[in-house]
Each structure stands twice: as structure tokens, then as C-alpha cells.
Amino acid sequence: MKTVKASLMATTFAAAAFAMVAPGAQAAQSIAKTCGPNNQYVIGFSQANFKEPYREHVNHDLQTLVKNYPQFKLVIADGQANDNTQVSQVENFLTQQVDILFISAFEAAPLTPAVSRIYKAGIPVIEMDRATEGNDYTSFVSGDNRAIAKEAGEYAAKLLPDGGEVAILEGLPSSSPAIERLEGFKAGIAGNSKITVVATQPVDWMQDKAVTVFSAMLQAHPDIKLVYTSNDLAAAGAYIAVKQANKLGQVKIIGTDGLPGPSGGIRSVADGEWAATFVYPTGAAEALDLAKKILIDCATSVPRLVTVPTSRIDADNAKEIYAKGG
């Protein structure tokens, strides 16, 4: 399944110049129905869940950075990895008439109608990381999942110059990042014809499922030399499976997220447990900047797509970055 946002990322930077105004508004009118520097505004953020470390990282960044905007009050709702729960939360934000909606959709299709309703009611919508379907949003803020995963695939191809068997642990297959990361990684390793992908399976971003799935993969394919995981939590599960199979040093692990802290991917690379992880930025600063432009500056247009750059964490830089608080 391809979302509009995914296709936007695959096109030229001209897509970022497209602007959106509030439904039914004239070009010269502000995006927001109410705006200006002297008002107070409520940002309603519907987060897919609070369970994943990356989601906690996003929340923390938003809560920290929103302090720079005294006009903003941030309200974060836990979608609990449940479509119905998240739909209800979005509808509550509509009832409460929040001034702007931030959303990371747990799954694309089920959340699309609710997001469309709030957008058509004249409330600006900033989608973060996870896309809904269709065009009813104001701006989409995200790392380029396909590009990040392609870079990971190219890195894997260099790690295995003589080729070998590779496995992939997908995220939640109904979410846009999981789809794009799978496609991107396969494109990246395609440059090394000696590499064979012998197993691909979703683990829904979860560590415990990654342990179970990758343990089974290692039993079925004992010659696996590398595993690519769609997030750091899955990479942590893959490491446990490798350790339990007594294959430490035999299977290279590549994560995605580049989370800081003692339980994050940066430390795992610094300690030599993983070969690399690729930083997936939270987009918190960019989303709040958009909210400022829309609500405080009374912008008449903002970019439809804001792509936040990534970076690779590997043996060359992990220890230095971790020592600096990464």
C-alpha cells in the first residue's frame, strides 16, 4: 500500500513547496480560524501509543520544546496501539475544538475518516511520522523512511562484501513507516547481488515478538549473517535471540531509530552489540515551528511536506555521541 505521503517523499523537493489553506478559505486568509501572538492555543496530540521507546522520545521532545512557546498548551493522548481508542481521542479533540491537531496514526486507514473530519472542520492537522490516507492534512513532518532504510541497506551491502544470508524484521505492516522501511532496505541491498534475503516477517515494532521471530529464523536459517530491524526495540530483541542461540559475533544487527539513553540504540552500537543504527528524528521541533507559523504568525501557507534528515550511528561515532548524552 502506498500513501500520498510516501509518494510525496519519492518525488522532488518541489512537493515541499505546495501550500495548504484552510478549507473554503481565500488564498490571502490565514490557515487558522483564530491566530495571532496575543492568544493562547491548545495543541492536541494523538500519539499512536506510549509503549514504544521511540514514541516516548517524541513525547519528551515535544514536552521539552513546547516550553519555548508560552502561548501553547500541549495535550498528549495515548492511543494505546488501538485504532478505536485513537479515533475516539481525535473525535474528542474535535469536540473540544483544539486549535491544531498533531497526530501519529497507529494505522493509516482506520484513522483517516476521523482526521478528515477534524481537518474539514477547519482545524489544521500536522501529521507526524505515521501517515493517514488521502489529502486531508495541513502538513506532514517525518524522516524519509524509505531513504533511511535504503541507506541502511547500502551499509549492509558493504558490511557483507562477500554476500550471505540476510533477514528482515518488519514493523507493523499496516503502518506507512514499516512499508517504506521494508521497501527502502530491499532497494539498498540490491546493489550487492551476493546477498540473499532468506526471511522477512513483521514483529510489530515489539521486542518480545522480535525475540520469538528471530529465534525461529535462526533455527530455520542458521547461516544468517545480518538482520535489519525496522526499529531499535526490534533490534534489541534480535540481539537477545542471537545471544540465546550462541551466535554473538556471527550475526550483524542494524537498527532504526538511534534512540539516546542507556537502553537506546546508540549505547548498543557503542557497546559493540549492534553494527549500526540509523537516527529517525522525532520531528518535534519542526512540528512546533509549523504550529507557531500557523497560530502565532497567521501564516497563509506552510510546506505540505517537511522532511527531517537522518544520520548513521556506527562504530566510528557511537561512543563519542553516547558520551555527549546521546
The overall pLDDT average reads: 91
Q: What's the level 1 CATH class of the largest domain?
A: Alpha Beta
**Count of spatially separate domains:** 2
Helical fraction: 25-40%
Strand content: 15-25%
Specify the biggest β-sheet.
Answer: 6 strands, parallel
Annotation, overall tally of beta strands: 12
| Global morphology | elongated
Short key terms for the protein model shown above:
326 residues; alpha/beta; Rossmann fold; 2 domains; 39% helix; disordered N terminus
Describe the structure.
The chain is of the alpha/beta class. The protein folds into 2 domains: about 5-140 and about 280-305, Response regulator (Rossmann fold, 3-Layer(aba) Sandwich); about 145-280 and about 315-325, Rossmann fold (3-Layer(aba) Sandwich), CATH 3.40.50. About 40% of the residues lie in helices and about 20% in strands. The protein has 11 helices and 12 strands. It has helices at about 5-10, 55-65, 85-95, 110-120, 145-160, 175-190, 205-220, 230-245, 265-270, 285-295, 320-325, and strands at about 40-45, 70-80, 100-105, 125-130, 140-145, 165-170, 195-200, 225-230, 250-255, 275-280, 305-310, 310-315. The strands form 2 sheets. A 6-stranded parallel beta sheet has the order 2-1-3-4-5-11, sandwiched between helices. The protein has a 6-stranded mixed beta sheet with strand order 7-6-8-9-10-12, with helices on both faces. Helix 8 (about 230-245) links the parallel strand 8 (about 225-230) and strand 9 (about 250-255). Helix 3 runs parallel beside helix 4 (about 110-120) and helix 5 (about 145-160) packs parallel to helix 6. The longest helix has 15 residues, at about 145-160. The radius of gyration is 20 Å and the shape is elongated. The chain starts with a helix and ends with a helix. About 50% of the residues are buried. Mean pLDDT is about 90; it is low at about 1-25.
